[in-house]
Amino acid sequence: MVAVVKVGVVGAGSIGSVVAEALRDGQVPGAQLAGVVDPMLSPAGLPMCALPELLSASDLVVEAAGQRALADAGPQVLSAGCDLLVVSVGALAADGLLEKLLAAGPGAVHLSTGAIGGLDLLRSAALLGQFERVVIETTKKASSLVQPWMSEAEAEELRQASAPVELRRGPAREITAAFPKSANVAASVALAVRDWDVVEAAVIADPAAPLTSHVITAVGPAGEYRFEIRNKPSPRTPTSSQVVPFAVLSALEALATPRAVFR
């Protein structure tokens, strides 16, 4: 008999709640919901608990509560012997956090692909040699890109924008830190190509954008690549794409029921 993987979820927002409900309802073969931790939310129908209780009942924990939650709870999850599936990949832009997580075992670290694809090919190509140039340009609806560090005048100008405007372009670490809810994809690309310094990221605000787009171009020893992903925003949280929780569910299914799948 194949053992069932008991999955805990940290975060009950637009991502965590979808994941937890699918696990609760038996929609992920080989996995079942162990509990949910979220000090801010308590959605009806989900078994809420504290982190120590969750860790004692889980084999694997999904982090779906944001970058600070990953930094705070991630090491505890791993040192308790639970595997960790990271959703807030952008947190790994912080110097030393990935190394801290990897050293916190015995639990293993897994990264969700989130809102983009093509990472498997980029990882493969990186084994052949260092990329010469990698660029990711993210375009989102302007109103969803207002940030706490913006002045009120800047924020209002963005809300009232009538044409696309490039908000910021620079190294992946910088852009991921500036847009923590919108630029996890830049971190995912940098980790896939194994080089934070070679990845340039840009965030573009478009008041008329019906979809969130990510355009990735890369040039390296293995060839030249261009991927374009256009996702529907989450109806509950427009800063995230609707597909993100389902990327988590796909990852959970692959981890819970290993078989011949593309990984």
TrEMBL record:
Pfam (any one): Asp_DH_C
Enzyme Commission identifier(s): 1.4.1.21
InterPro entries from the UniProt entry: Asp/hSer_DH_NAD-bd (IPR005106), Asp_DH (IPR002811), Asp_DH_prok (IPR020626), L-Asp_DH (IPR011182), NAD(P)-bd_dom_sf (IPR036291)
GO MF annotation: an example: oxidoreductase activity, acting on the CH-NH2 group of donors, NAD or NADP as acceptor
Pathway the protein acts in: Cofactor biosynthesis; NAD(+) biosynthesis; iminoaspartate from L-aspartate (dehydrogenase route): step 1/1
Enzyme class: oxidoreductase
Superkingdom of this protein's organism: Bacteria
Function: Specifically catalyzes the NAD or NADP-dependent dehydrogenation of L-aspartate to iminoaspartate.
Miscellaneous section: The iminoaspartate product is unstable in aqueous solution and can decompose to oxaloacetate and ammonia.
Similarity annotation: Belongs to the L-aspartate dehydrogenase family.
Protein's name in the database: L-aspartate dehydrogenase
Origin species: Amycolatopsis dendrobii
Lineage: Bacteria, Bacillati, Actinomycetota, Actinomycetes, Pseudonocardiales
